[in-house]
From TrEMBL:
The keyword Cytoplasm is annotated on this UniProt entry: yes
Pfam families: RabGAP-TBC
Major site of localization recorded for this protein: other
Subcellular location: Cell projection, Cilium; Cytoplasm, Cytoskeleton, Microtubule organizing center, Centrosome
Protein name: Rab-GAP TBC domain-containing protein
Keywords per UniProt: Cell projection, Coiled coil, Cytoplasm, Cytoskeleton, Repeat, WD repeat
Residue span(s) of domain Rab-GAP TBC: 399-574
Matches recorded under InterPro entries: Rab-GAP-TBC_dom (IPR000195), Rab-GAP_TBC_sf (IPR035969), TBC1_cilium_biogenesis (IPR051570), WD40/YVTN_repeat-like_dom_sf (IPR015943), WD40_repeat_dom_sf (IPR036322)
Length: 736
């Protein structure tokens, strides 16, 4: 039976009397261990380090603020203090669990011994305190509000100093990293200040990524002091590396995490999940996230009441959750992890190492070694990412280094990392066209499916026309696999591809891009006209042998390794190189295609992985690109590369053209087919009656098409003249 406390008197007992919280700390079921019922309109709670005590604030009669202590070992509760002002911050000291820090709206902070009731008043703030921080091995207690940060010595609690800050930018969090004796202050803009505790003249500043416009509301420090994560009114969280004093990455939270109201790291109590983050959003939903993989482990919510605050015990065994109905419930932290029967949990032992500050000499020595390694690595990457050497490196080894491929692609495409734009698109949710995408693709990897749906939805919210492009998921999917750890880069890479390499694909929608197919057909004709003639005799058009290669981004006919190699070359060359690769795939498949007896066999061959060497295909593509006539591979026809702008997205103006242009393109293509048939055998002395009849029909077809087009234009011209004459006569009558 779970324990229950009803705060209806100044003292009372916890029911049942034989309740023992210690025996329940290893439970793995999501069940309430202790339930505390308040009696007021507002409530806050905090757990002591090993959950001997629990402090709860509530409102009593005459709007008096009451602070209760629940003794979870002796199964009783009692009133600790009455205050006129509301409580603004509440925290137990992690080293001495009987010491409670309480901040009120009167700008005072109280240090209270919950056993004997002794109180020490800490004064010095000009406005009410919103946060209190103290580490288990730290000689400091830090109190802060949006304008000031004060340092207090422990255990004397004398005011040591007041940090000098810019009062124009609100402070959101402050803390002490005892492992390196550093002070950390974070601001609403995402800027982080780092000082050495003993020497505050050297200040390090870490700025959030450019273009990321988040109003930060919460920060959380990892138990080892290596990472600081911050979030706010966005589903993105920024990870700061306190070792390198830089931004490590931007985390894309799961779909249910619309924003970050409060975040806290759970202590490492699970053998498989060492870095776990508890994220509470403004809608009252608590998400438990695996920090290393940015995946959600569990969600905690109530059907009727939102969660308003959380408090984690220092040993990590328990978590207190306060709901909007003045109820606080205590859960075992182990129930927030996925069930794993293969591992047996062991109790986390109490730390045996006492507090100590690392000596300055050793710390400086470690910092020097770290800086040297960082400089060496920076020089290595800088030399590799010199754009003048990329192409030489690619042509020599036929591919980019696997270790740096992601970084090179991002730099080649010059992706702007517009976090705020991407965030706004994701906030619109999953597009209606892709709500049942899992039924179509049947992906086993839910993480990939999530990123794919998010990317497709963001693309469609940016360009609604793309919702009608049925092959878009298959085209985007290989890039999602490549950029799966960073959805923003994946989205911007696909947008860059659509605007540069795919700009002629949608001109005659829903028909394929005629221009790009004509270019591929011309390349094949110039290199191997008998192969093209064979395909034409089988009634196989470029729409059937070249278009599937393009709309799948070659992923259907290439292995993953070959696909990466091919796109190394495509992205490193102008957009006109893409049709050369498609034509090279057909030309290097000459023997298999010539052995095909009908159109069905050609389609079957081009819908499976090719067994031809990818290096031969790339060599042929470069030969076509170098030797082809510049008129149909020019920038005027196929365009030149233009990167995405900083701070926004261009308007998607690519779409279907006028029907007259489509008819004209089709007519010119048919005429080229007739001319090609004539050019295949230019020296044949005589033709059979059947061949002559076929040629005559082709010429008649060209004549009829031209005549029909001319008659159509004449009819439209006459119709316009009649309409103009009718309007002129009507105007003349009105004047009379």
């Amino acid at each position: 039976m779970r324990g229950q406390v009803v705060l209806d008197d100044i003292t009372g007992n916890l029911v049942p009397h034989d309740f023992n919280l210690g025996t329940l700390k290893t439970t793995r079921k999501l069940m309430t261990l202790v339930e505390i019922l308040g009696c007021g309109v507002s409530q806050d709670a905090a757990l002591s380090c090993h959950s001997t005590f629990m402090a709860v604030t509530t409102v009593g009669e005459s709007n008096t603020n009451l602070v209760y202590i629940v003794h979870l070992v002796e199964n009783r509760y009692y009133l600790l203090k009455r205050t006129v002002e509301p409580c603004t911050a509440l925290r137990f000291h992690p080293y001495q669990e009987n010491i409670l820090f309480l901040a009120t709206d009167s700008r005072s902070v109280y240090r209270i011994d919950v056993i004997d009731g002794t109180v020490i008043k800490m004064e010095g703030h000009r406005i009410p305190v919103v946060g209190i921080q103290s580490g288990s091995r730290s000689p400091l207690v830090i109190t802060y509000n949006h304008e000031e940060v004060l340092l207090w010595s422990w255990p004397s609690l004398s005011l040591m100093s007041r940090l000098r800050l810019d009062e124009a930018v609100p402070v959101m969090w402050a803390g002490h990293v005892w492992q390196r004796d550093e002070l950390i202050v974070s601001f609403v803009t995402g800027t982080v200040f780092i000082w050495h505790s003993q020497n505050r003249s050297q200040q390090h500043t870490v700025q959030p990524p450019d273009g990321l416009q988040i109003e930060f509301e919460s920060f959380a420090l990892s138990s080892g002091g290596e990472w600081l994560v911050g979030g706010g009114r966005s589903h993105l969280m920024v990870t700061y590396s306190l070792l390198s004093r830089s931004v490590a990455q931007v985390i894309h939270l799961p779909a249910s995490c619309t924003d970050v109201y409060h975040a806290a790291f759970l202590p490492p109590i699970h053998p498989r999940y060492y870095q776990v983050l508890a994220v509470l959003n403004s809608t009252g939903v608590l998400n438990i996230i695996n920090f290393t993989t940015s995946t959600k482990l569990k969600t905690l919510r109530a059907q009727r009441f939102n969660i308003v605050s959380i408090s984690v015990s220092e040993d990590g065994n328990f978590i207190a959750v306060t709901y909007a109905n003045n109820t606080t419930k205590v859960y075992s932290s182990r129930c927030l992890f996925p069930e794993d029967k293969s591992h047996i949990y062991e109790d986390v032992a109490e730390p045996q190492v006492k507090f100590r500050i690392v000596e300055d000499e050793k710390l400086d020595h470690k910092n020097d070694e770290m800086k040297q390694k960082k400089r060496k690595k920076f020089k290595e990457i800088k030399g590799l990412l010199d754009k003048t050497k990329w192409y030489e490196l690619l042509r020599e080894f036929n591919e980019y280094p696997v270790k740096y491929r992601n970084l090179i692609w991002v730099s080649i495409l010059d992706l702007p990392r517009n976090y705020s734009v991407f965030s706004d698109l994701l906030d619109k949710g999953t597009h209606l066209a892709y709500e049942k995408l899992q039924d179509t693709l049947q992906l086993a990897d839910r993480g990939l499916l999530k990123v794919l749906k998010g990317t497709l939805s963001a693309l469609t919210h940016w360009a609604p026309f793309l919702s009608s492009v049925e092959y878009l998921p298959e085209f985007v999917f290989p890039f999602v696999k490549f950029f799966h750890s960073n959805p923003l880069l994946c989205f911007e890479a696909v947008v860059t591809l659509l605007l540069n390499w795919c700009q002629h694909w949608f001109e005659f929608w829903p028909k394929p891009g005629i221009m790009i197919l004509n270019v591929i057909e011309q390349l094949i004709c110039n290199a191997d006209s008998p192969l093209l003639a064979h395909l034409m005799r089988l009634k196989v058009t470029a729409e059937e042998y070249a278009w599937p290669l393009l709309i799948t981004a070659f992923s259907r006919v290439l292995s993953h390794t070959d696909w990466l190699m091919v796109w190394d070359h495509i992205l490193s060359n102008p957009p006109s190189f893409l049709p050369c690769v498609a034509a090279a795939c057909i030309l290097k498949s000459r023997q298999p295609l010539l052995s095909c007896g009908d159109a069905h066999e050609v389609k079957v061959y081009l819908n499976q992985e090719l067994w031809i060497s990818i290096r031969l295909i790339l060599d042929k593509a470069y030969i076509l690109y170098t030797n082809s006539n510049n008129t149909f591979l020019s920038e005027d026809k196929l365009g030149k590369f233009i990167p995405l702008p900083r701070g926004g997205l261009p308007v998607f103006s690519i779409g279907p053209r006028d029907a007259r242009e489509e008819e004209r393109e089709n007519m010119e293509r048919k005429m080229r087919d007739v001319e090609f048939i004539r050019e295949i055998h230019p020296t044949r002395p005589a033709r059979s009656p059947r061949a002559a009849s076929f040629s005559k029909r082709q010429e008649d077809m060209v004549y009829l098409i031209g005549r029909d087009e001319l008659e159509k234009q004449e009819q439209e011209c006459l119709k316009s003249i009649r309409n103009l004459r009718r309007r002129h006569l009507a105007t003349a009558k009105d004047n009379l």
